[in-house]
Amino acid sequence: MDKSTFEDPKAVISGPMHGSLRHDSAHKHVTGAADYIDDIPEPTGLLHGALGLSDRPHAEILSIDLSAVAAYPGVVWVFTGKDVPGVNDTSSNGSHDEPLLAETLVQFHRQPIFAVIAETRETARRAARLAKIDYRDLPHWHNIDGALANGSPLVTTPMTLQRGEPETEMSNAAMRLKGQMRIGGQEHFYLEGHIAVAIPGEDDEVTVWSSTQHPSEIQHIVGHVLDIPSNAVTVNVRRMGGGFGGKETQGNQFAALAAIAAKKLGRAVKFRPDRDEDMSATGKRHDFLVDYEVGFDAEGRIHAVDATYAARCGFSSDLSGPVTDRALFHADSSYFYPHVHLQSKPLKTHTVSNTAFRGFGGPQGMLGAERVIEEIAYSLGKDPLDIRKLNFYGQPGSGRTLTPYHQEVEDNIIARVVDELEETAEYRARRNAIIGFNRDSRYIRKGIALTPVKFGISFTMTAFNQAGALVHIYQDGSIHLNHGGTEMGQGLYTKVAQVLADSFQVDISRVKITATTTAKVPNTSATAASSGSDLNGMAAFDAARQIKERLVAFAAEKWEVAPSDVVFLPNRVRVGEIEISFPDFIKQAYFARVQLSAAGFYKTPKIHWDRKAGRGTPFYYFAYGAACTEVSIDTLTGEYLIDRTDILHDVGRSLNPAIDLGQVEGAFVQGLGWLTTEELWWDDKGRLRTHAPSTYKIPLASDRPKIFNVRLAEWSENAEATIGRSKAVGEPPFMLAISVLEALSMAVASVADYKVCPRLDAPATPERVLMAVERMKRV
């Protein structure tokens, strides 16, 4: 067979790794053709569920009268915690502190107490309001101050990180200062709210469609509440309309309730809370109160840091342990602390249990560190960027590479990233121009800041750093891909498909992406911790490797050539001197009884962590970035505009630059919302009042920087053996938005001629900016 029979030898495949291929569902998203769970054709006899919610923040339940609920026309069943067949608990960490339905005690306003199953969703919701519940109110506190004042217990064991002699070195430091920073929480505000559909099967079987980032946990929880084994539960997820961490554990309750009702009634059941219920009954980003002390010298070099990170965790532990742990892991930001003592304080409050959110505590830890840098800079009358650069981690051998948790920073490129952005964004010239502008401007003041990002990549729970993938090649050469990762709009499915297409050197159109399901890949980790592409991409690569090894052995034997003479080329395979189209090659392999299916597996190497000792290597590598933001504020109203942002971000050798750029841009805007417009507020009765779009302000397209320049560090390549030498992109760019808060701070500081740190807390709403301006006028 002649080479000329096939395509041009210089041909390339469409959609290889490192190519800017469009998101596989992008055209479906914009046309409305993408199917979400609420778009799936409803099974015959589908029933709908609604939650019965408490109206107390903390109280004993004395009696429950659900007779009017059950008698409402169209209601099929009403059930409480006593009707749960298995264990009435949905805790994700085995702590058994999160009841599916509260039975004798409610611990936050709008905690689920019962569930209504009816013929229509409207019927179920209306009936749920007819319950008569008697309570005995108990003392409650809904914020960190209240928790501290009442000696609140901790929801989980705190963590301490220590290195060196912080107490001694703090005393010996030439200069020292103390401060406190409040950091607000954040609502996930995914476009698609929580939803679950359960379909009963034979015997003990049940199939659940859930909008979740963690199908295996839904499988476990459903088995837990039904008292059935995991092999009887199948969980499916094709895509989510956003997740951001809010669907890592919070989908448990809706899937469990739907499954209980479906098995009880023998009919499919759907739970879809409205936005108010979703925001009231599900967790959010933890807000923090950071108390810090720093010792430093006259140059601004840090000698010692002592900080406590207290968090509002809500009524149960959920993921507060690992979230507050990660806050400490990132309390150094990009800076070397010679002597350090850090402590977490995960406080119980009578609010919904807070949970994972993009960055998972890292943003709060990093923000505290940047406040420390800012304090030093203002106390010395220096540019905060100079203090940042002075305190950066050093290169190996510098003696400045050890983190507070005793991991060496071996891949440090932060100085290069910052230097490059400083030059391309013309930071120095613009800062000087802004200082001149502020000197002459009466009401409008400007600020500029350049802040770094160093973010550790891996689950800090070592066992979660594993993934599986299932790959089939069919006789016609088409490829079927399934893996444990979930798609929430971030492009994971596209990236893993690119890995597979590149491995076999076929067009990506030959790879069929299928819904994530526990029936194909078991024991999956949540798609979280920015590790989706790292883990699942490597698992798919491993599956492809296994199949390719069999194919190479087959070809070498059949055509009597050396294995090295079997080469996969674009859409064809060269065997010695002949070339065969990929479909023909696969068909011949099938008739030779070559196994064309493989289960791939990957576990992250090198990592280990001893939480009790506060030592180890919890992260496989670090991702870096930097952002330079310029703002203008109105000192009469506190209102502001983001004039310009320049970003340089490190994603290693990008698997898909187009998708990665979108992730950087989206993360920055979401972080901008966290630090400026998004404010959670509870009243004195423990009621969340920011529970709808009318009272909770996410950033709009008009809030983006007027000039928005985003670049990837194309020269970067991961030093570790990740898939394609790429780096994670999900969470690290979120912290780039810290540059906005720091720029606002400079603008406020100009009112007092930059003599004191404004101590601007987050979110920096116009009201907070105005109050900070008024404080500066009194300096």
Question: Gist?
Answer:
The protein is of the alpha+beta class and 779 residues long. The protein has 3 domains: 46-138 and 194-272, Aldehyde Oxidoreductase, domain 3 (Alpha-Beta Complex), CATH 3.90.1170; 382-460 and 610-777, Aldehyde oxidase/xanthine dehydrogenase, molybdopterin binding domain (Aldehyde Oxidoreductase, domain 4), CATH 3.30.365; 466-603, Aldehyde Oxidoreductase, domain 4 (2-Layer Sandwich).
Please count the beta strands (DSSP E, at least 2 residues each): 29
Domain unit count: 3
Major β-sheet strand ordering: 3-5-1-12-9-10-11-20
Radius of gyration: 28 Å
Q: CATH superfamily assignment of the largest domain?
A: Aldehyde oxidase/xanthine dehydrogenase, molybdopterin binding domain
Which CATH architecture of the largest domain would you pick?
A: 2-Layer Sandwich
In CATH's first tier, which class of the largest domain applies?
Alpha Beta
Q: What is the overall shape?
A: globular
User: Which stretches are poorly predicted, pLDDT < 50 over at least 5 residues?
Assistant: 1-7
* End-to-end Cα distance: 86 Å
